[in-house]
Amino acid sequence: MTKSNPSNSDLTTPTFVIDSSRGCKRVSGPTRKSTKGGWTPETDKLLMNAVCKYKGKHWKKIADRVPGRKDKKRDVQCQHRWQKVLNPNLNKGPWSKEEDDLLSELVKVNIENDKPKWSKISKQLPGRIGKQCRGRWHNHLNPTIKKTPWSREEELILVNAQMEHGNKWTEIAKLLPGRYVLNKLRQDGE
């Protein structure tokens, strides 16, 4: 089997095929495994020490104490690393019934322009970040989600829409009401 060099378009736009036994399956495209700008246990420790020293404020000063962060947005990188990965108050475990109930209630009262304001919602759920709240809502709690297996027709709509729109998942999702498109991609990629 000979390997050919993929074109740039092959690297940026994943390709999907219909597999009769598994449905829609990703067969090409970039992966998220990147070593560029990675965090090490040593840089994590430096970040934790700097966060303690500056009490989680002054992110530019904190970033100055973490070598290897040369990017203009290094303060944002450090803040995100702390808030989304290292913060010991972050709850990465399963959601409780109480959290689910509170999240459902908060979604109802924190709608702006027909969309929940996830950052605002997460501030009222200790230990959870906006991304976790959004994922929990879209994957499990939203009452409009169809939980039945995908039909062949829906899979074809997904594949054809991805070919037409590329990775514009918001546009693609509009063609499949009640389906969380990224769930299908994760499911079939396993």
Automatic annotation (TrEMBL):
InterPro entries: Homeodomain-like_sf, Myb-like_DNA-bd, Myb_dom, SANT/Myb
Span list, region Disordered: 21-41
Endpoints of the signal sequence: none
CDD domains linked to this entry: SANT
Domain HTH myb-type: 36-86, 87-145, 146-179
GO CC, alphabetical: nucleus; snRNA-activating protein complex
Residue ranges annotated for the Myb-like domain, each copy included: 31-86, 87-141, 142-179
Record Pfam families: Myb_DNA-bind_6, Myb_DNA-binding
Cell location: Nucleus
GO biological process, one term: snRNA transcription by RNA polymerase III
One GO MF term: RNA polymerase III type 3 promoter sequence-specific DNA binding
Record keywords, A-Z: DNA-binding, Nucleus, Repeat, Transcription, Transcription regulation
UniProt keyword annotation of Ribosomal protein present: no
UniProt name for this protein: Uncharacterized protein
Lineage, opening ranks: Eukaryota, Viridiplantae, Streptophyta, Embryophyta, Tracheophyta
